[in-house]
Amino acid sequence: MSKLKFLALGGMGRVTQNLYLYQYEQEILLIDCGIGFPDIYMPGVDALIPDISYLLNQIEAGAKIVGMILSHGHDDHIGALPFLLPNLPDFPIYASPLTAQFAHDRLLDKKVDKNIQVLGDRQNFSLGQYFKFQFIAVTHSVPDSKHILLETPVGKIYHGSDFKLDKNPVDGHLTDMEFIEQIGRQGDLLMACLDCLRVERDVWTPSESTVGPALLREMQNVEGKILVTLMSSHLHRIQQTITACQELGRKVVFVGRSVEQNVKTATQSKSLTIPKGLLIDKKKIKQIPDEKLCIIIAGSQGQEGSSLVRAVYGDHQIVQISNRDKVIFSADVIPGNEIPYYSAIDQLAADEVDVVYPEIRPNIHRSGHASRVEQELMLKLLKPKFVMPIGGADRHRSLFKKTVAKPLSYQDWQILLPKSGEVLEIDRQRVSVAQQVSLSAKTVDGLGIGDVGPIVLSDRLNLSKAGIIVLLLPRFKKKIDYSKMQVISRGFVFMKEADEVVNYIKKETVKIAQDLGKNVKDEELKRRLEKRLARRLFKVIRREPMILPVIWDIER
Amino acid sequence: MSKLKFLALGGMGRVTQNLYLYQYEQEILLIDCGIGFPDIYMPGVDALIPDISYLLNQIEAGAKIVGMILSHGHDDHIGALPFLLPNLPDFPIYASPLTAQFAHDRLLDKKVDKNIQVLGDRQNFSLGQYFKFQFIAVTHSVPDSKHILLETPVGKIYHGSDFKLDKNPVDGHLTDMEFIEQIGRQGDLLMACLDCLRVERDVWTPSESTVGPALLREMQNVEGKILVTLMSSHLHRIQQTITACQELGRKVVFVGRSVEQNVKTATQSKSLTIPKGLLIDKKKIKQIPDEKLCIIIAGSQGQEGSSLVRAVYGDHQIVQISNRDKVIFSADVIPGNEIPYYSAIDQLAADEVDVVYPEIRPNIHRSGHASRVEQELMLKLLKPKFVMPIGGADRHRSLFKKTVAKPLSYQDWQILLPKSGEVLEIDRQRVSVAQQVSLSAKTVDGLGIGDVGPIVLSDRLNLSKAGIIVLLLPRFKKKIDYSKMQVISRGFVFMKEADEVVNYIKKETVKIAQDLGKNVKDEELKRRLEKRLARRLFKVIRREPMILPVIWDIER
């Protein structure tokens, strides 16, 4: 019998870029299709998309994608659809109703046309010859989130994407524990992949429904406007804010592209209920007295250019914040965003605006991820032969092994921690690494996809540290005239005050050129100038600007 | 009677760049002289130093610095000494023994010669005609930290820099509560400045001495080497690590320039005691079996190029980490450092190295700052007429007002939250804003001080986002020959694959130039090219590279 192949195309040990490949013989099943978020080492990059070259190779070799299943509507699980679908043959995509709707929005944004099929829970569905799957309801920070039970020729696999075990979810849709228990009771689960992101915490993640009353308390006795900022897809949080507004007699206005779009979609698909008369169009904001107004606004990470940040810095056309207002950050900071996030809070505090955030009011935000104890419970119930932590960084995966799987008597060979790019082969008895592929995520920068590679990024980082010096070397009749050399720079020193440095550079350039002699080739001259000038400048000023010598042939 | 002037030269609402000016008539007293740390918006910058132009103006106008007092040995309180002293007239500097030693090291690093006078606690000392001061022992994350009681003609001022109220400090030197109580009992304290950094936490900060036993527990039953990384000036933490090593029979090696230097200084000044035979020179590291070795290593923030990070990525000459070793991060992440800090931890986890950090083991690090409850106790004891939170960001200052000062019945006019650059005038009755000065911190970049200003920084940020395009426009006999134009770029797109973009740029350049006509001036042409090309490129590719047109007159 053949083995089942498994690969995380977005890389293992990453929280984002979720895209999982399951392959049996020539049939490929994909789960999720998410983007990644660039860090400080990728300036200018808007997003990262998983590397699908392995997938394309398999197709080239005759394999066929029999379907893609989307687990939930977050961008790190659906955001890469518009970038990747155009490069792939057609195949059916399946999702829960709201996830399908969100995915549809993402596709529409980029003018990609694709129908997504909606499936209910516990509905067994066949894909190709070898795969069956069904959705299992779970709770998470976006409604309509699902886990996926796969049936494959080698056995059943539980693909447990992002979840928490919320005992009292806002929409009443509990995690389908009955079904999960049943899987475990059958005792034949081969493998479970489980969201391990929040394994560092060992207290059951509080229910989302505890946030509503906390928000209500924060919203009482505010003289001016209330601004609530949150993740724009967090519809349960939005729903609870709306409920609080209704209780307090405040009208609700949505501001910010992502919030407005998601609310529109969610209202249409009945994932969000806004009582009649409560909603105000943002253009009519001035007609409502401040004390009767609550603005739900995008920008909860302090993102540059977001509606909230523009409002904070007095740069928003519609929303002005005064010191009678209160701003509620109903969102944790995502690691890497600390500087803009706290800058926004500090600016509000400096302007004497009442501002609260989870660090001082833990109950105005609760995570959407399962803590260690919930992960443990899931593993206890499912009793798979193999377990693989997913959706976390390497430190989370390692901790899952130590604090979740090991205490439940899983042996090393049963706990799967594949490295990024490792293709696993799974059968009923064992899991082995069949192949190591190299994965390099493609960058999305503006309208360009993949044209900003490692060299361009490394140039950008170098440029940011010490700027650039362009050395213009004119050559007349095969002879460079160094007396006519020009030095231009940006980001190095303030050039109007830098005569001394410029003269130094010119002088050193001449010296280096003289050392090299007349017969030196262009490429060699440029390379030497780059290196030697860099070294000399570093000695003199301890900076390493990029040096760009340009030889310019002028024949007249 | 004259009033006392007060200004934070490093800016209010900043945690770092501590440099406070107190002026009475023509006499100026300075407290601390610290650097600031650049954030992601200041690429390439090594440090920030406070803007002393106000101070220089005062001196110009006849004022005299009667002395500088250093509160403790952290770089954000002493690190700017070598940069600022050379630009100021001579004046005496006072510090506790260890602080003086650390300050001396900083000065020596930059070859600045200056003697620092050592003073004991509770020793009344006169500065000039108007000021007296004495040191008050406090606990903090570096030994020998002090608060300062100033006597000025308008009244007594308690300058309470960084502190915690450690009930069981490692070196037994408790905060001098008796003296602090006595100040309060006298009932004549005019103003207290108090470290508010940790006001968000409302549980008494645990004693540093609780960390030692926790470290010992972590260090037990480790097969291989142990690496402990920590703040290099945290001598009490180092002392406790040494004690644990002694107990476990492990030799100690210090690795990393800052750790090695500080340990040397602290050993000489008896702030650190290393039992005989315990210390091993790092060159002899190979002679000690792994299970008998503990390396105390610099790089607890995951700083690029630090000893720890080089070791983590297999790039350190002496320290190699294997999966039998254990790495202990005995330091919290400082906001802004999350990416490198967690990357180092993730890399270790991926390499199957046992790694622990405060998020999963809270007791292997404890803060050196007072929580809200300790701040409250200080204020209760001191009973000043005016109180000013210092050493925190704006959100901390605002929270101090709300949760510390207000509940103790301080009125708005008694709680001082000056904005950055506000010069306060203080007398026995009231505090008012006398003047607003503009403060712009100077940058240290390599060997250059202050030559990287806002324009250069903004250029660097722009360069990092989309790179640079240099347009070379040759002019022969007063006519630009667009057919000979050259386009060079870095950090924009990978140029070898970018013929299309280059041709587009050339074509658009010609069009723009034609639109402008022949009589356009050079500056105008360049400005228009920059703007219009930027706009057109943004439309086509949604990127905004810096555009640098260069007109080059060639007369031959």
Write structural notes for this entry.
The structure is a homodimer of 556-residue chains. The first copy, chain A, is of the alpha/beta class. Chain A has an 8-stranded mixed β-sheet. Chain A has a 6-stranded mixed β-sheet with strand order 8-9-10-11-12-18. In chain A, helix 8 links the parallel strand 14 (251-255) and strand 15. In chain A, helix 4 (97-109) crosses helix 8 and helix 5 (177-186) packs across helix 11 (372-382). The longest helix of chain A is centred in the last third of the chain and has 20 residues, at 522-541. The radius of gyration of chain A is 28 Å and the shape is globular. The mean pLDDT of chain A is 95. Chains A and B meet through helix 10, helix 12, helix 13, strand 23 and strand 25 of A and helix 10, helix 12, helix 13, strand 23 and strand 25 of B.
